[in-house]
Amino acid sequence: MMNSPSHSTSTPAPLALVPLNFGLEYLSSPCHHNLTLVVQQGESLQANSVALSLNSPIIGHVTTTLGEKQFSLRGFSRSTVQIFLEAAYTGSLVTKVTKTNFRELNNLVNHLAVNWMIDRCFGQFKTWTFGMDANNFAEQLFVFNEAMYIYNHHNKRHYIDIVVKGFSSKLSETRFFVSNYLKSVSLSCPLPALDVLFEIAENKEFLILEAIVGHLDGCQRSIGQNGKNLLERVCETDKLRFTHKALYKSLMDGLDHIENSAGEDFMFVLKMKQMSDRPSKIEESIPLARIPNLFHDYECLKSIGDIDSLLKYLVGSQKVTNCYIFYDAVAIWLNQRGYSSYAQFIPDGFVERFTEHKTHQSWQPLSLHYIGSNTANSFNRKIFDNMNPSLITYSRYLRIESSSWFTPDELFGRDHDIKFKYREEAVTECEQEGICGFTLRVTGAATKEKENKFNIRLLTDDKLYNGELHFHDESLSLIDGIHFALDVTENAGPGKNPELPTVKWETLKVTWYGKPHRDATGEFWCWGPHRFHKRGAGQLKSGDRYKRGQCFGDPGNTRIRPVVYYFRY
């Protein structure tokens, strides 16, 4: 008896999907030519309407719906249309794409709405963007100009997003491009390009100020309208007047020497002077800046019953201002519920939604070192399974460790300074006395939880630093960029060197655990569920609002080292 067929004879076969390799030999066969494509200079090419209609809904409508046998592509060259035809017949495009034909080819496939070819062109563009030579301005200018062209002519923003990401990854590359671009356009930067230039230099606007000061000679006779737009945009960036005073003064001095200082230019220079004289909001601010991830209350998370509700809360919360705070909230919520080893509590698509929100907010990626390599943690495992380079970075971050270790009493029980050695990459030369760095100032010694005035803030006024450390204005980007955590060891007992303890717990998260405080008895220190106590005391008990935590030994033998994570551009 014959085997019955696996499919009913009445069931139609699946529809053909592109890209599909029809076979290039059919393109050159006159027997299959039933559609004429008219290109530039009236030349024509022959092809099959079925193969092209499957690739392009535009051609499909003209041939199948309207019954036309001729299709006009008079705006495109014969060579570019030939590349399109070969790609349509073979399902392969990338090997044919060059920087010479990219713009016209990309215009053609967008004109014909060939989605898979549009995606391939974008993929090739990303390869060029992330592979460009850091010191090759021609390569950089190509990707920048193509992104601007696609935005202006196709109203597509994603090319610009890739360019911004590609340029802003390193300070030296951003400086090189910004300086050379402004020089090449002689300060006549079109407004849309100016907007993108400021996106590239986000948090590094001083690079644009550097370029303007360096190329101000290009507008000595007249500033010009576009030059005015650029200068006004820079002068509106209030923090530059405070963080780069010498550069800003050079700009004002350069404007004083504009030859044609009458009429509109005179009024413009006067306006710039008035803007430079207005009080700086930064200079008027308190010289102690809060640290974004410290002292958030766990009660905000404790009442959330499921992971989807947690995601909605984090997406809408003003407390969640970077990837680290988001990650800590999810990890702590899972840990306190005992879900850390059960992957089913992290649904499929959760990490993708996290990544999408991170991209929408223009947050910097997580450090792989910060989240650790513990794949027993379900959230970590999901992140590693979806290793997205836009969410995780291997190297573009700094882990800055404090210069000293502290006992719990020293760290929590007194007013003092936590010192960090650090020099911002923008500070290429330093002749000041002492070491470049920054200080986190601890005030309001920790007391009982409800009476707690404990605080840790970044000291931003260099005049308040002593001779050991000094603070550079360029380091003000630390205000929004650092993420605080703790290293802890119990190896500092008798016979050990307390200055060089071995780290036992690295990067202890404290983001959503409120403030450190004394317990009700005053015998030990708490920071959320983390306890620094004598052996046998301070263990988590039934009824405690925290279900899981780390209990450390005798405070006399425990050492704590504050650390901060900081994204490096």
Approximate helicity band: 25-40%
What are the segments in which pLDDT stays under 50 over at least 5 consecutive residues? Answer: 280-286
Please report the number of helical segments.
23
Query: Which descriptor suits the 3D outline?
Result: flat
Distance between the termini: 72 Å
How does the major sheet shape up? 5 strands, mixed
**Rg estimate, integer Å:** 31 Å
In total, how many beta strands?
18
Strand % is 5-15%
Report the structural category: alpha+beta
| Residue-averaged pLDDT | 80
Explain what you see:
It is flat and about 95 Å long. It is built from 23 helices and 18 strands. By secondary structure, the chain is of the alpha+beta class. The protein is 40% helix and 13% strand. Strands 4, 8, 9, 10 and 11 form a five-stranded mixed beta sheet that branches. Strand 14 and strand 15 (525-527) form a beta hairpin. The protein starts with 34 loop residues before the first strand and ends with a strand. Helix 1 crosses helix 2 (57-65), helix 6 (137-154) runs antiparallel to helix 7 (158-167) and helix 11 (225-235) runs parallel beside helix 14.
